[in-house]
Amino acid sequence: MPLIVKDFGWEETDKMVWVTVPLKGVKANKVDILSSDEYLKVSYPPYLFECLLFAAVDDGKGSAQVGNGAVVFKLYKQEPGLWNRLQSPDADDKQIMKQKREEAQEKVKKRLEEEATLKSTTKRANEKLAINEMMKIEDGERERISSIKESERNKATEDLERWKEEQRIIAEKEKEKLLAAQREQVEAEKERDREERRKQRKAKANNIFEKENKSGNAPRESGKIVVTHTPRVFPTPTRESQTPQEEEWLKKQAEAKRSIEMSLDKDLTEEEKNPQWLQDKGNSFFASGDYKSAINAYTHAIHLTPKLPSLYSNRAACHLKLRNFFKVIEDCSKAMDLLFPPVPQNAKSRCKALVRRGTAFCELELYVEGLKDYEAALAVEPKNEALAADAERIRQVIQSTEA
């Protein structure tokens, strides 16, 4: 039978408990310690210390130190407060004590298994990390060697190209010299031919006058011819007209309306067959902040009549609110295609589509493309001060980025 240790000591605060168990001259390497959140055990034959704690402690924070002839437990209470006693009232019940002992042994066993598993996992991870690091080092070395080889090849290629360029320049200069010499020779020959022809014409003219003088005929006097022009009146050109473009625009609108009648579904209600009602419904959703419902309404209207540019432009405004910038660009581009030819009747719609697409480009940090759309919108509405201010801010962003 083991000898139960009763001359232990303990102290407590609101948050901590210290338990001191004397070893009675036994060496530290022969001490078996077991600790859990409710149970303490120190076994050093023939002595045995067991304690069923009054309340639970934090097993993960506590510690046990062996030294100076004693085992000192440093425990942290799970719930602050004074116990006023170390042992639980159930410590005298052998059945409960046995149960707590077995639970403590099971917890310790499980904890040791987890620690072993964690240690094994950590070891494998460290080995894998070491292998990865070695592979990275080897890859880096191969890349460095490959880079050196590539650099040498590039240098040799550059030297060869430089030599070829020098030879080409030398050949060009020699060719230019030969061509210049040939041109000078040709020009000299041409000049000699011109001088020879002048001499021949002069000699021929002198011969003619000499013949006329010998024949007694005097030279003919010069005469004058009076020319009068009939006055002609040209009509003033009229102002350039946009009539063909306007007729084309009205024709496209008429085709869009005819497509509405051709694409109606018999299963739809009268309101659902009306694109204008759907557009108004989408505008109402947009005003209330329900952008997804507005997109659904505009999309349904587009299915009924895919040639109305306002549906694409309005849907682009919804996508802009939802930050679907690529869809904004797609819808605005489709609207601009349908707003051709540009006439005064669709100027306001073209301006809206350009501004929305330009805003989407800027949100995607494609500032050059965004500035192009804003400048195109300014060409449509040159007196719009807000547009001019926005375009100037985009230019400043582009300049700061380039700087």
In short:
This protein is of the alpha+beta class. The protein is built from 9 helices and 8 strands.
State the main characteristics.
4-stranded antiparallel beta sheet; alpha+beta; Immunoglobulin-like; single chain; 9 helices; Serine Threonine Protein Phosphatase 5, Tetratricopeptide repeat; 403 residues; 4-stranded mixed beta sheet; elongated
Describe the protein's architecture and organization:
The longest helix is centred in the middle third of the chain and has 122 residues, at 94-215. The model is unreliable at 208-223, 229-240 and 260-264 (pLDDT under 50). The chain folds into three domains: 3-92, Immunoglobulin-like (Sandwich), CATH 2.60.40; 113-200; 268-402, Serine Threonine Protein Phosphatase 5, Tetratricopeptide repeat (Alpha Horseshoe), CATH 1.25.40.10. The chain is elongated, with a radius of gyration of 51 Å. The chain has helices at residues 94-215, 243-262, 275-288, 291-304, 309-321, 325-338, 347-363, 367-380, 385-402; strands spanning 3-4, 9-12, 16-22, 32-35, 39-44, 47-52, 63-67, 70-76. The chain starts with a strand and ends with a helix. It has a four-stranded mixed sheet, covered by helices on one side. It is of the alpha+beta class. Helix 3 (275-288) runs antiparallel to helix 4 (291-304) and helix 7 packs antiparallel against helix 8 (367-380). TPR repeats lie at residues 275-308, 351-384.
